[in-house]
Design goal:
The complex is a heteropentamer of chains A (258), B (235), C (315), D (392) and E (300).
Chain A (H helix, E strand, L loop, with lengths): L3 E10 L2 E11 L4 E5 L6 H8 L7 E6 L2 E2 L5 H6 L2 E3 L12 H8 L8 H6 L2 H20 L15 H14 L4 E5 L7 H18 L2 E5 L3 H7 L2 E6 L2 E6 L1 H5 L2 H8 L8
Parallel strand pairs in A: 3-8, 3-9, 6-7, 7-8
Antiparallel strand pairs in A: 1-2, 1-4, 4-5, 9-10
Chain B lengths: L1 E10 L2 E11 L4 E5 L6 H8 L7 E6 L3 E2 L5 H7 L1 E4 L11 H8 L6 H14 L1 H5 L10 H13 L5 E5 L7 H16 L3 E6 L2 H7 L2 E6 L2 E7 H5 L2 H8 L2
Parallel strand pairs in B: 3-8, 3-9, 6-7, 7-8
Antiparallel strand pairs in B: 1-2, 1-4, 4-5, 9-10
Helix pairs in contact in B: 3-6
Chain E lengths: L1 H31 L6 H18 L8 H27 L7 H22 L5 E2 L8 E5 L2 E4 H23 L1 H11 L1 H6 L4 H26 L2 E2 L5 H14 L4 H23 L3 H15 L14
Helix pairs in contact in E: 1-5, 1-8, 1-9, 1-10, 2-3, 2-4, 2-8, 2-9, 3-8, 5-6, 5-8, 6-8, 9-10, 9-11, 10-11
Classes of the chains: A alpha/beta (258), B alpha/beta (235), C mainly alpha (315), D alpha/beta (392), E mainly alpha (300).
Chain lengths: 258, 235, 315, 392, 300
């Protein structure tokens, strides 16, 4: 059974077809890229999956369970976590607290223990703390755990978004332009970290990215969207020479490479 | 006509433009290409006053420094910006949108002339003039956005991704009109992701990558440059 | 033993009510004592409103309404229900009754409105406060326009002080617990919080109901301290007063809210001689504050984070 | 602890720490300064009232009356050979502020007696504090019977709701020979609710019928809905126990709707504004009051003339009269007590007999309420004319 | 039947006042997304200014219809300026801050006007001079229509038509609509957004002042706190009609006035003040965008 399965999903905004008849599957442990020119509908697909929008038509299944139309937090609890294109951290909270919030659903609900700070509560806290720090270490943020998230550099904020998403213990991670605004050095590090996460946690990852170098290197499969429609699916090397893709990106077909 | 020297723009932690310099001469079509997030739109927003740069200067006609002016003052100088994603006033009719474009013009006859010109350039707008612009198709909205900017009779037109999300046939129409507008005497600075189309109509082009200009050449040369292809497709 | 150690500070603070109360009764006249009691009640109101407005980022303008519910329900309780009980039993009973009634009111108001945008919530809670007043004025059983009197003086410095400590403790430990960090997350970015699996509506309602509960307890204490209540004590202005405390102290700062409650309560007394200029100064203060330092005195920080308070970065 | 809170150190925070500390200390200093003890060569009397807030108009009127009395007393050489000083505190029309105000007067200003409040709700809140500290409190205008039940130090200078409400009912039924009444009550105002209650009871006892009961809220300006409803029930008179601030408008709107039956009111109507706002609409209405201008008692004439002089030609309303009378009564009691000790003033106040106040001749009864005759006035061509006088 | 008709007349005249105030709320909310709490107090200042003008200009002793028109328009001008001043001093510096900051400032401005009003004008109610003598125009059975009620309805209608003309047919009106759609795009059209916002405040405040002056004439008792409740209720009227929607505000105001009157007449007048808020809660539950509004979704 596929981890995530979208069948024939469509969404229209005031006459404009944002996504039309979009079908897609992703298996556990896969790393798939979703690319396309600006305005092609990539982020809309993410918003459909995470319940920000509800598809006009079509079905979205996570591990066989239909999740279309569920509230966002339920979809997250079904195992899908995401990052945002425009960073949406909790800027006034510490880096660590951002991750703690991500882990919210895995924290024991024991009001009395919390009020009196019992030994069990302290133990639970210590465990949680260790887990969250481990997640931060994975993304190279452990040293900044106690700083406010808003004071981090752009690249660090993007990585913190990933750490926070991981804290929800997802089975599927949706990354919306994780490398945007990063310098080349940071991009290399990010690629390494994503690879590590995937190995360690055995996640499915769906990634939107404009840095083609990054996408081509990392993904085993790429789906290309244009005008809300899938125009190509395949391995990176196939995509790179696909006429329709080149046309979508550069305009008309390029006569020949020099 | 427009000279930009060592422009820096920051949004919070992001250093979106890192020392960009460029020039646009009168009568030209200059295009600015680059992948998403390279800082193309930011540059246009800085020129039209929507973003205050953190350093550098923007010179209009070689003399006036305009980087600290409010947007409406910049419009008065003859620079018009057609923003990304059209941004037509969806709650207003097509005709009202056009009237807004001529907001700073006083001469009634001139305005009427402008509207006639807009309808000649885009006949579809005449048919739709009483329709709410929110009900137009994407291509029609783009035409309206351009026509609206022309109502101010700009000397320099800043176009931000006019092909965004449009079908190829519509893109062709729009690019044809852009050339026509240029032929009628309006200088154009065109930001495009659709590099091929843009470079074909532009005299000169700049390639922007992560906030810096990495390449500058004639449109034709850039069209055949492997770097451009690399910048987009990553090989 | 371990448990005792972890709770030593609050226990000591609660226990301090007896020596402090005795000391105060020996040194301070009833006028000052009454100001101190008002500080306690206002601190409870400010801290509980801070949970809603500052920490969870909602905007309630109906805190006086919840206070009124607590005050009237507890007063009715002590007059008709627990009349004659020993104070040691009657006091907790009426506090609980007042608090729970207000919490229930909070739930009824919160369920439909917390899904709405912030400014709509503000006007709805304002409306709720007015409805409560109209209902009380038209209920002869609780005195209507004549007010309700004759409650035994169950609350005094000691009980107000103890309740304030408990209120602050509960809210502090809640929002500083790993689970409670979600309240702040809802304020910071609701959409991101939801994407992290947080049931934002539930957290908002929890904050609202808990805030209302403590406002109700504060109302109950207030009613049994003055011994006479009237709807004029629970007008829109009272709600605004509490909002000002929260804003002044810093949206999200619990210690800031307490300090602001103390400062403003004392300041209102100290400015008494200005009579009709008092409220003008108050409103100007509010405007200037928002224009110059919108984060409040402490911003989102707590007093425990201050440099000279503690040199350690972490406890 | 598992979750340390991140600490941001910045100089601005410490600056604001200082500012905070300053903000804490400053008010305390201010409190101490303002709380300085009064000089021993003067007698300090406290007054608390609503100088701001919803019912500010009552507080300011009373205050003007008190000040006028104070100046007259001091012009006569003060009391017991000392100058008299009045310290006035604003309670913002809020009960809990009234408590603070009274406590401050007693504890910080060391007043020998307290005058206030107009609204029964605030008097009820403040009374226990005066009682506990054995400081006599004289309310100028709180008509709720419960006020003086708070203890033997609490007095009032006005009649209570039952007397006024039932007097009007008796007058309407017996003298005007009316049988069908409507009542329009201000539900936010205990005075209005009280009068309505006793009017209703007495009228029913006398065999009259209440055909309609409608209500409004203090501060309203639109009454046409209620009046239209009342009109359909065709009463012979409408009892409107409220303050002139609303009643005059009610009269106007009644007339506009063609509801022309006489309106009846209480002492809250006593204000020049009643005729100013009401115009011809209030002609032919009746209300109960403390005194009539036509009585031509010297106290009344002198009071009105002086008041107009002091207040830019404004004619006093009932609150100003009662504020003046309270202060005068208090002065009289202190003189008779020959002392400024609380218990002695209390005893003297309790023994007040046939005191010639502007609002009538006052005797304090066993319940510490003022016994004085009530007069019924009719508004005729913009003038308050005397109809009859009822002894308690 | 007569009673119902009479109540409808009462309600319409009263609702026309709400409608005028609601228009200002809707305009300001349209451009700034701000609940301008001070709006009700501008209405109070409008009544006060009309009162003082009537006395200074001598119309109080020599009443005339012309006098009322002069007083009305001058009061509108003064309050227009006041509205622009409030925006300039209290709201403009906060424009890029969280909306909550502006909301709190608005509460501050509102309190300043109320308590400053109690200080400056005195807390006691004032009698608004009878610039036009009230008389009944016709009587049909028990139904009475007074000239003042008719005047209030007509002047309100006239002002609404003028507003509609300004908004739909003039350049500045076009700019107002553009600015309420997007500050940024409007500025790219060469519109000075600050000026347009000031104009919005001027128009909204002038309408509130007109409402204040007419209330003075119709219910001639004015005092500094008179704006508190009508202000909030007019906001509810604006929400009811769909905030940001001009015809909606008018319909909302009229519905509000009529509902209040009917509740006071047939249910219990003491619950009159609660009605507004019950309406608000019901509207927000059933149709959060109001009768004529459209639902908008936040973009991610």
């Amino acid at each position: 059974m596929a981890l995530l399965e979208l069948t024939d999903c469509s969404l229209t905004f005031g006459g404009l077809k944002a996504v039309s008849a979009f079908s897609f599957t992703l298996d556990a442990g896969q790393l798939v890229g979703l690319i396309g020119p600006n305005g092609a509908g990539k982020t809309t697909v993410f918003n459909l999956i995470t319940g920000v929008y509800r598809p006009d038509r079509g079905e979205i299944r996570m591990q066989g369970q239909s999740i279309a139309g569920l509230p966002t937090f339920r979809i997250n609890r079904s195992g899908i976590a995401r990052t945002f294109q425009g960073i949406r951290l909790f800027p006034n909270m510490s880096v660590l607290d951002n991750v703690v919030v991500g882990a919210n659903q895995h924290i024991a609900r024991a009001p009395v223990a919390m009020l009196f700070r019992t030994a069990a509560f302290a133990r639970h806290n210590a465990e949680l703390h260790a887990q969250c720090m481990a997640t931060l270490t994975l993304l190279g943020l452990a040293a900044r755990a106690h700083e406010a998230a808003g004071t981090l550099s752009y690249g660090e904020q993007r990585r913190l978004e990933i750490a926070r998403a991981l804290a929800t213990r997802p089975k599927l991670l949706l990354l919306d332009e994780p490398a945007a605004g990063m310098n080349p050095q940071e991009k290399v590090e990010l690629m390494e970290q994503i690879r590590l996460i995937r190995e360690k946690l055995q996640l499915g990852i769906l990634i939107i990215e404009h840095d083609m170098k990054l996408i081509m290197k990392m993904c085993e499969r790429i789906t290309v969207l244009d005008h809300g429609e899938t125009i190509a699916v395949g391995k990176p090397e196939q995509i790179q020479i696909d006429e329709r893709v080149i046309k979508a990106y550069l305009g008309e077909p390029v006569a020949h490479d020099s | 006509m427009l000279t930009i020297r060592n422009l820096h723009v920051r949004y919070g932690a992001v250093h979106a433009l890192q020392g960009v310099s460029l020039t646009v001469a009168a009568g030209e079509i200059v295009t600015l290409i680059g992948s998403n997030g390279a800082g193309k739109s930011t540059l246009l927003r800085a020129i039209s006053g929507l973003h205050r740069p953190s350093a550098g200067e923007i010179l209009w006609k070689g003399a006036a420094q305009i980087e600290t002016l409010a947007p409406h003052r910049i419009v008065a100088l003859g620079l018009c910006h057609v923003p990304e994603g059209r941004q037509v006033f969806a709650n207003l009719t097509v005709r009202e949108n056009l009237d807004l474009g001529a907001y700073q013009r006083k001469d009634k006859a001139e305005i009427r002339e402008g509207i006639e010109r807009a309808y000649t350039l885009f006949p579809i707008l005449k048919e739709r003039q009483q329709q709410l612009s929110g009900t137009l198709s994407g291509g029609e909205q783009q035409m309206l956005a351009i026509a609206r900017a022309l109502m101010a009779r700009p000397e320099l037109l800043l176009l931000d991704e006019p092909s965004l999300g449009l079908a190829p046939l519509v893109v062709q129409t729009i690019f044809k009109v852009i050339q026509e507008i240029n032929a009628q005497g309006t200088t154009i600075l065109l930001v495009e992701q659709n590099a091929h189309m843009a470079l074909r109509i532009a005299q000169r082009g700049y390639v922007l990558q992560t906030g810096k200009i990495v390449l500058e050449d004639s449109g034709k040369n850039l069209l055949n440059s492997p770097e451009v292809r690399a910048a987009y497709l990553g090989d | 033993m371990e448990l005792l150690k972890r709770n030593a500070v609050p226990l000591l603070l609660v226990a301090a009510q007896w020596p402090v109360g005795w000391l105060l009764s020996q040194t301070v006249n009833s006028y000052y004592l009454q100001i101190i009691v008002y500080i306690g009640i206002n601190a409870m109101l400010a801290v509980s409103l801070n949970l809603i407005n500052g920490i969870t980022g909602q905007f309630s303008l109906g805190h006086a309404g919840f206070m009124a519910v607590g005050a009237y329900v507890s007063a009715a309780c002590s007059l008709f229900l627990v009349n004659g009980w020993p104070a040691a039993l009657a006091l907790p009973a009426i506090l609980l009754a007042g608090g729970l009634a207000a919490a229930l009111a909070g739930l009824v108001v919160g369920l439909p409105t917390l899904r709405l945008r912030g400014d709509y919530l503000a006007i709805t809670t304002l409306g709720f406060g007015e409805i409560i007043r109209v209902v009380i004025l038209n209920t002869a059983a609780v005195g209507g326009a004549r007010g309700l009197g004759g409650m035994p003086p169950l609350s005094d410095f000691a009980s107000v002080y103890a309740c304030t400590i408990v209120c602050v403790l509960v809210i502090w430990r809640l929002v500083h617990s790993p689970l409670g960090k979600a309240f702040t997350a809802v304020r910071e970015d609701e959409i991101a919080a939801a994407a992290m699996g947080i049931d934002t509506t539930r957290y908002k309602i929890t904050a609202f109901v808990l805030g209302a509960f403590w406002a109700g307890v504060a109302g109950a204490l207030f009613a049994h301290f003055i011994g006479y209540i009237h709807t004029n004590s629970f007008t829109f202005l009272k709600s605004v007063e509490v909002v000002v405390m929260v804003v002044l102290g810093g949206m999200g700062s619990i210690s800031g809210a307490i300090i602001a409650a103390a400062v403003l309560t004392v300041l209102t007394e100290a400015l008494r001689f200005l009579a009709d200029y008092r409220m003008i100064i108050y409103s100007v203060l509010l405007i200037v504050m928002m224009l110059t330092r919108p984060g409040g005195l402490l911003g989102r920080h707590e007093i425990t984070q201050w440099r000279f308070w503690s040199s350690r970065t972490a406890r | 602890m598992a979750h340390p809170i991140s600490a941001r150190r910045s100089t601005t925070v410490s600056v604001f720490a200082l500012l905070c500390a300053l903000l804490c200390v400053l008010p305390c200093v201010l409190l101490c300064v303002t709380g300085c003890k009064g000089k021993t060569d003067e007698i300090v009397i406290g007054e608390f009232g609503s100088l701001t807030g919803g019912t500010a108009t009552f507080g300011t009127s009373t205050h003007a009356g008190v000040l006028q009395a104070l100046d007259e007393i001091n012009a006569r050489g003060g009391l017991l050979g000392k100058k008299v000083k009045v310290v006035t505190e604003d309670d913002q029309s809020k009960p809990e502020e009234a408590v603070s105000a009274v406590l401050k007067l007693i504890k910080q200003n060391n007043v020998v007696a307290v005058i206030g409040e107009v609204a029964s709700s605030r008097s009820l809140a403040a009374a226990p504090q005066c009682q506990r500290n054995k400081i006599p409190m004289l309310s100028p205008a709180s008509t709720n019977p419960k006020v003086t039940e708070a203890g033997d130090y609490i007095f009032r200078a006005c009649f209570i709701d039952p007397f006024q409400g039932s007097t009007m009912a008796k007058f309407a039924v017996n003298s005007l020979k009316l049988k069908r009444f409507a009542i329009l009550t201000d539900t936010k105002n205990d005075y209005s609710v009280g009068l309505a209650q006793y009017f209703r009871e007495t009228a029913k006892k006398l065999g009259a019928e209440i055909v309609a009961e409608e209500s409004y809220s203090e501060g309203d300006i639109e009454f046409k809905a209620q009046l239209t409803s009342i009109k359909t029930k065709s009463p012979e008179a409408v009892f409107v126990p409220g303050y002139y601030t609303e009643c005059a408008l009610i009269a106007r709107q009644a007339k506009e709707l063609g509801l022309t039956v006489p309106l009846l009111g209480g002492d809250g109507w006593d204000s020049p504004k009643t005729t100013e706002i009401g115009g011809a609409a209030v002609d032919g209405t009746y209300f109960t009051n403390h005194y009539s201008e036509q009585e031509n008692r010297p106290e009344v004439k002198k009071f009105i003339d002086t008041y107009k002089q002091r207040n830019a030609g404004k004619v006093p309303d009932a609150m100003a009269v009662l504020g003046y009378d309270s202060m005068m009564m208090m002065a009289d009691a202190i003189t008779r007590a020959g002392s400024t000790e609380g218990p002695k003033i209390r005893d003297a106040l309790a023994a007040t007999k046939n005191f010639a106040a502007v609002s009538g001749t006052i005797t304090i009864d066993a319940q510490r309420n003022a016994q004085k005759s009530i007069v019924v006035l009719k508004i005729d061509a913009g003038r308050f004319t005397f109809v009859e006088s009822v002894a308690p | 039947m007569d009673q119902l008709l009479q109540q409808l007349i009462n309600g319409l005249a009263w609702g026309a006042i709400y409608a005028l105030i609601a228009l200002g709320y809707t305009m300001v909310y349209g451009v700034l997304r701000l609940i301008n709490f001070a709006h009700g107090d501008v209405y109070m200042v409008g009544a006060m200014m009309a009162y003082y003008l009537a006395h200074w200009l001598g119309f109080a002793v020599a009443p005339s219809t012309i006098g009322f028109v002069i007083v009305l328009t001058s009061s509108m001008l003064i309050c227009g300026a006041l509205g622009a001043l409030i925006e300039l001093v209290a709201y403009r510096p906060l424009r890029n801050r969280p909306r909550m900051s502006m909301l709190i400032t608005a509460i501050g401005v509102s309190m300043l006007l109320e308590f400053g009003g109690q200080r400056v004008f005195g807390p006691d109610p004032k009698f608004f001079p009878q610039l036009i003598e009230s008389r009944s125009l016709f009587k049909a059975g028990a139904v009475v229509l007074t000239n003042i009620d008719l005047l209030v309805i007509c002047v309100s209608l006239f002002l609404m038509v003028v507003l509609r003309f300004i908004v739909l047919r003039t350049k500045i009106g076009l700019a107002v609509r553009a600015v309420s759609f997007s500050f940024e795009t409007s500025s790219l059209m060469g519109i000075n957004v600050n000026t347009v916002i000031s104009v919005t405040f001027v128009i909204g405040s002038a309408l509130a002042a007109a409402a204040g002056a007419m209330v003075g004439l119709r219910n001639p008792k004015i005092e500094p706190l008179m704006g508190v409740l009508p202000g909030v209720k007019a906001f509810v009227a604006a929400v009811l009609g769909g905030i940001g929607n001009f015809p909606g505000a008018v319909v909302g105001g009229l519905v509000m006035g009529v509902t209040e009157t009917l509740v006071a007449a047939y249910f219990s007048s003491t619950y009159r003040d609660a009605v507004a808020f019950v309406i608000l809660i019901v509207v927000l539950l059933v149709r959060p965008a109001g009768l004529f509004g459209k639902v908008t979704v936040e973009k991610v």
